[in-house]
Every structure is written in C-alpha cells, then in structure tokens.
Amino acid sequence: MDLGLAGKKALVTGASKGIGRATARVLAEEGCNVAIVSRSPDALAEAAEAVGAGLSVEVRAIAADLSTEEERQRVVAEVGDVDILINNAGAIPGGNLLEFDHARWSAAWDLKVFGYVSMCRQYYERMKAQGGGVIVNVIGNAAEALDFDYICGSTANAGLCAFTKALGSYSFRDNIRVVAINPGPVETERLVTLMRKKAAARTGSAENWESIKDPLPFKRAATSEEIGWMAAMLASDKSAYTSGTVVTIDGGIASQSRTF
Known about the structure:
Layout: E1 9-13, H1 18-29, E2 33-38, H2 41-52, E3 59-63, H3 69-79, E4 84-87, H4 102-130, E5 133-138, H5 151-170, E6 176-183, H6 189-203, H7 224-235, E7 245-249
Parallel strand pairs: 1-2, 1-4, 2-3, 4-5, 5-6, 6-7
C-alpha cells in the first residue's frame, strides 16, 4: 500500500526489536528515512541493517538511554526535525502495589511515562515551528484491561492515554496530529519469555508454552507487523482527520465483560 510517506523523516524509539523494529521497517518500506533509537548498540546495529535491507532510504541508528532527560535531549539534537515521531521505548515490569516501592515505581516511569512526555514536548515544539507533524504513542491495552498484578503498568498506560487524548484534542491548531495505539498480546521475545514462565508454572515444562496461546483471541497473539502497519497508517494522510484518539489492537480483550 502506498501511504504517501515517501521522503518523510521518522524517528522510532525502542526500535532494536519487536514492535519498534517492525514499525521502522514498515515506514522504511513506505519510503521514509528513519532514525531508530535503543539502549543496546549491538542490537541496534543489527536492527538498522534489517530495517534498511534492500531499500533506498536512510536508516540512522542512535544508541541512547531514554530514561534520562539528558539523553532524550541529545537524541532530539542529533536527529533534528522529523515529520513522524513514534514513541515505543519502555517496558514496565509486572507486580502488585506492595511489590513496588517508590524507587522501583519511579524507575519504571522514567523511561515510558516521562520519556514519552519529554519526547512529545520537544518534538511538538519543533513540529509547530516547521508547520506540522504526527506523533504516535505506542502504549498498551493494560490502560483499558486494568490488572491488579500489573498496577504500575496499567496506571502508566492509562495516564499516557489521557495525555495523548488531551494533547491531540487541540493539536490541530498547530497542524499536528497526536494518536496512540494500545497493543494487547504481541508475539515478541518478551511475550514468548512470559508464556514460557506461565507454562512452566502451570504444567512443569516451559516447552508447552504454545498452549498458553489457546485462550487468546483467534488462538494467537498479534504480530509486530500488524502494529507497525497501524502506526504507519495513522502517521499518513490516509488518517488525516484522526487525532486525540487511541486505537486498541488486542483482538477484543479490553472490551470483554468479566464476571466473578
């Protein structure tokens, strides 16, 4: 599909693997020049090669820890202006309220919550000055499918959804669109590791992890590419009237009614 993105410049954070890497590849396939950011230089170099393979676009890799404001500012200064910002960096660990003290809670939010807010703030200012742009925040369906045992993540995600809606509700005044995606289960390395742990706890063997997918909608998790294509669509003029909203891609999980 030609989304009309050829020649655009995009920045994708958390792009060394999973959703971020897939999104960067989709954008590159659509003709975008892409800057990708991740903490791991080795994984990032491999991702950059894969993202640009066989394509006539520029792929730039920047190793950075976006949990610190100094590093966030460095990345923005190095990358410069972009047409599209995809915020995707950050994975908050599971645990209930009593398992998270203040230090652990703060550390979990430094990357995903404050990182997203900072990148949005810096690039909103730049996009306003350049006459427009699109910000896509990849958040997570725990914002809607609230989880006692993922309370730090659920709270963070819900806050980022509110932030996205608030920012995107009037960003049209600056010719900027701000949207979000809430993925549910996505078959990434992280999900497979989690499924192996669950299988070992339930059956005594991690080798039975595929069976954990049976209760999922359509008996599978989403692919990273499915999220990446939605991000590209939302970033394109095919979605030119979409702002201040959140698209949930979880097979219907967050919409299920639960009874006890």
